[in-house]
Design brief:
414 residues; alpha/beta; GMP Synthetase, Chain A, domain 3; Rossmann fold; four-stranded mixed sheet; 10 helices; binds adenosine-5'-diphosphate
């Protein structure tokens, strides 16, 4: 039996809103409820002038109300995430009850859900997910011993992955690359999706042919980005069936035998799913982090969770999750919530990784992709705003990761 948003909202009508008068729902304090099987996420407006005692009380009453509603409906909850947000929607405080995604079974208390660390069960997570982004129960493989910085002149290597195909992974990788280049960075884009390379189309490479100079592939320079794709090295009409060692070789060749030169960023578009190419990449390259692309639907989220966990197991920091095709913007400018906006954000919360933003589904983006003209995505409007925000958040997370590793901010892009 699944728990519903309605059941939670009903339960929260019984929780008084500290300082605001009335209950959490009637006072407008309840901002967001999301439930996915046994995982619940609630956002409450941080009451102005609330004391830590008030917040602690609201937290414990909210948790008790949700747990008791779940028990009444015969639902066993795995986790409740309670976030207090500012008027602007920024998360200012987080409380987490229950096991984070990936925790070993049996970590929860038998009497309801156990809280996260901190006084009054308040796990404080600053804005943007500054806390350690790993779930407590997750293990990370150490960086493989053989990992070498194959390309020491590349300052940041970012992999873009997805649990399944068709969610817009290549589109996000491409626009991340183009947007970073437009901010003045020197950027490479590698089509590591050796099973279904789409960058020749998305970049509009047309009839351009690869050139080899001194035994090295010269990247294509289009839209301000240096790019290389297997799609230009094999017959485009033949299916790309690679066995493990061949896939390894193809990826290695693209990474190592392309004359990337000095780069601020190398963005790698990975094949969908979890597989040998990602393993090859982790063994070969020192990654700065990975971005996971997901659409809002439940089925896409489950696959994306697997992709994120794969990165973590490979010792690669997950910079965050992007929700692509979050909602549809029609020609009339109206927004249509087709797939149930917010699913990926919820998934990011479950995984305890940052949410990097939502990219809408628009005819313009589809057309610019088919036309091989990503530059047009930066001409203004909703898509430009979505990509700019995404890029800023990725830059922020990279800086943060570097600081956590004790390297200090490394980006000098203004
Ligand atoms: P993947 O790499 O995950 O297989 P692609 O990036 O190739 O997916 O995208 C699949 C198709 O969906 C492409 O035609 C692309 O232009 C289109 N697409 C992706 N994201 C959007 C979006 N937000 N709005 C409109 N079309 C999109």
């Amino acid at each position: 039996m699944s728990f519903s948003k309605e059941s939670i909202t009903r339960a929260l009508r019984g929780v008084p809103a500290a300082g605001a008068g009335g209950d959490l729902v009637s006072a407008g304090v309840l901002k967001w409820v999301s439930v996915c099987e046994s995982y619940v996420s609630v956002k409450l407006l941080m009451p102005a002038g609330a004391t830590p005692g008030d917040i602690g009380q609201v937290t414990s009453m909210t948790r008790a109300a949700i747990e008791s509603a779940a028990t009444d409906e015969g639902v066993k909850l795995d986790s409740i995430i309670l976030e207090f947000v500012s008027d602007a929607g920024d998360v200012v405080r987080t409380a987490r009850f229950g096991a984070p995604a990936g925790a070993a079974p049996g970590q929860q208390g038998s009497q309801g859900l156990q809280g996260s660390s901190g006084p009054q069960d308040m796990g404080h997570r600053p804005i943007g997910g500054l806390a350690d982004t790993r779930g407590a129960g997750q293990t990370r493989a150490p960086t493989p011993q053989g990992a070498v910085e194959a390309t020491p002149s590349i300052r940041n290597i970012i992999a873009v992955g997805a649990g399944k195909g068709g969610v817009g992974k290549s589109t996000i990788a491409l626009n991340l690359a183009v947007g970073l280049a437009r901010r003045g960075a020197s950027v490479g884009l590698m089509d590591g999706d050796i099973y279904g390379p789409s960058l020749p189309t998305l970049l509009g490479l047309g009839a351009m042919e690869p050139i080899v100079v001194d035994g090295k592939l010269q990247p294509f320079l289009v839209h301000g980005v240096k790019s290389m794709t297997i799609g230009k090295l094999v017959d485009p009409d033949k299916p790309l069936i690679w066995r493990g060692p061949m896939a390894h070789g193809a990826f290695k060749q693209l990474a190592e035998q392309t004359n990337w030169g000095e780069l601020d960023y190398l963005i790698i578009d990975l094949p969908p799913g979890t597989g040998d190419v990602a393993l090859t990449m982790a063994q070969m390259l020192k990654l700065s982090g990975a971005v996971v692309v997901c659409t809002p639907q439940k089925v896409a989220q489950d696959d994306a969770v697997r992709a994120a966990k794969m990165f973590q197991q490979l010792g690669i920091e997950v910079l965050g999750v992007v929700e692509n095709m979050s909602f549809f913007i029609g020609d009339d400018g109206k927004e249509y919530d087709i797939f149930g906006k917010g699913g990926a954000e919820f998934m990011a919360q479950r995984l305890n990784v940052p949410f990097l933003g939502a990219v809408p589904l628009t005819m313009g983006l589809r057309k610019n992709s088919d036309d091989g003209n990503p530059t047009a995505n930066f001409a203004g409007g909703a898509i430009t705003r979505a990509f700019e925000e995404l890029i800023s958040r990725v830059e922020g997370q990279l800086n943060l990761t570097a600081m956590k590793k004790g390297r200090g901010p490394t980006l000098t892009i203004s």
